[in-house]
Q: What sequence folds into this?
């Protein structure tokens, strides 16, 4: 294994062509939750093969970049304190690697080391030892080779990780309720290929749930279900709503909240996750939708679209009482601060090159340093006219304020939007794991074009 070099994804002649209009469909199939690979006796051991294959998707046979031959690969399911071993085989014609997004685990060696590359035809064994303090919730896995993160993820390479344990914070009547993955993946289509180069964020894109086009989600009137909403695509935003029904948020970015809060809609940038309780509306049909969203005058306007059809039917249930107080959370606002840093997101006028503190990513340069077991306060400034999503590996952060407005601390986060010409103040505690890691914008086109920096965590 060696450090990543600059490399572009090899593409066919169709890749420079503008994508076809987004595909739509009536709801004819029930939602299928992904297959699961579950840890046993403290160990999750599995094999992931990366290859370009034709998959059945949205009623068509399409070329995609796959994990184990699937556009929606298995969910990896484990518990705090478990170990995970993944035999990772690369059958692509270009390098790749693996990142376990949001997980508190070592960033070096054979663990969550995004500086490794797995060359074509090679197999590498990833080995992770998760702490018993790992928070229960929803995470995901995707490739992270610099300059190739966006095309590989957009091509189909992403799946879910679930850490069990949320149940212990739920009242007894809500333990063991029906749960659904609602994995939001989108693809741009050219001919019979999912587009992997010349990606334009605002181009037409087909939005799927668990790799299905407008699946039907069944729920009984009054029934409470747990939905794991996760944006596991490369670039685009979702503003998710289910008209007439509230989302009751119990975890965000794989971190259980201290107080359950309810919203009518949620903006979910690429990489973010929300675990929510949903109670079945009165009998009938409604649509889980993404609403129009504008990411700024230098950004993109995303249209409204149907994600899934919710079919409420069957014997009504008395709606369960929902919890209010939930899990204990860290509060870093009163912690002593060892250092203060400023992170500035900028881009060139053409919107083709992106910078952190006016520098493009260089894996050989240390941009920020932190000392293990200390807390730092960072001010993230967005000196551009579009939203950027701040994401950091290894440790989560607490948002103190956005544009000077204090933020309620429901719990730590790992992917949060910084408004155009705005700022966000966060605090980060560097726990458990020294080593070299990264922070970046999680709009992967922006990361690949330079908006990433190296953080060295020293003992």
A:
């Amino acid at each position: 294994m060696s450090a990543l070099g600059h490399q572009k994804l090899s593409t066919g002649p169709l890749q420079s062509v503008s994508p076809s209009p987004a595909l739509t469909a009536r709801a004819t199939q029930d939602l299928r939750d992904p297959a699961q690979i579950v840890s046993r006796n403290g160990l999750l051991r599995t094999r992931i093969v990366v290859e370009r294959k034709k998959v059945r998707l949205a009623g068509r046979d399409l070329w995609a970049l796959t994990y184990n031959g699937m556009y929606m690969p298995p969910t990896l399911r484990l518990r705090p304190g478990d170990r995970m071993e993944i035999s990772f085989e690369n059958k692509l014609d270009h390098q790749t690697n693996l990142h376990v997004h949001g997980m508190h685990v070592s960033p070096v060696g054979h663990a969550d080391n995004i500086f490794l590359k797995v060359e074509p035809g090679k197999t590498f064994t990833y080995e992770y030892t998760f702490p018993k303090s790992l928070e229960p919730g929803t995470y995901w896995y995707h490739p992270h080779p610099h300059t190739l993160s966006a095309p590989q993820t957009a091509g189909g390479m992403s799946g879910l990780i679930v850490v069990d344990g949320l149940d212990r914070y739920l009242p007894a009547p809500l333990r063991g309720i029906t749960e659904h993955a609602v994995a939001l993946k989108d693809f741009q289509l050219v001919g019979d290929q999912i587009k992997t180069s010349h990606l334009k964020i605002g181009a037409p894109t087909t939005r799927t749930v668990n790799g299905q086009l407008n699946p039907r989600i069944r729920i009984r009137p009054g029934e409470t279900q747990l939905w794991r909403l996760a944006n596991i695509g490369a670039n685009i935003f979702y503003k998710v709503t289910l008209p007439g029904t509230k989302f009751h948020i119990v975890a965000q970015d794989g971190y259980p909240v201290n107080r359950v809060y309810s919203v009518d809609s949620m903006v979910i940038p690429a990489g973010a996750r929300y675990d929510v309780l949903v109670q079945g509306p009165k009998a009938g049909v409604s649509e889980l939708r993404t609403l129009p969203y504008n990411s700024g005058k230098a950004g993109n306007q995303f249209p409204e679209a149907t994600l899934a059809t919710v079919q409420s039917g069957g014997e009504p249930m008395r709606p369960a009482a929902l919890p209010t107080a939930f899990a204990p959370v860290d509060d870093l606002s009163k912690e002593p601060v060892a250092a203060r840093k400023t992170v500035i997101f900028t881009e060139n006028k053409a919107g083709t090159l992106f910078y952190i503190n006016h520098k493009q990513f260089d894996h050989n340069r240390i941009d920020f340093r932190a000392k293990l077991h200390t807390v730092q306060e960072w001010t993230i400034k967005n000196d551009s006219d579009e939203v950027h999503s701040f994401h950091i590996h290894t440790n989560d952060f607490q948002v103190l304020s956005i544009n000077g407005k204090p933020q309620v601390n429901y719990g730590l986060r790992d992917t949060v939007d910084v408004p155009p010409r705005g700022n966000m103040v966060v605090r980060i505690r560097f726990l458990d794991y020294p080593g070299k890691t990264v922070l970046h914008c999680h709009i992967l086109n922006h990361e690949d074009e330079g908006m990433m920096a190296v953080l060295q965590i020293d003992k």
User: Anything to note?
Assistant: Residues 172-312 form a domain with the Immunoglobulin-like fold (CATH 2.60.40.420). The chain has three domains: 13-18+25-165, 172-312, 339-458. Confidence is low (pLDDT under 50) at residues 1-7.
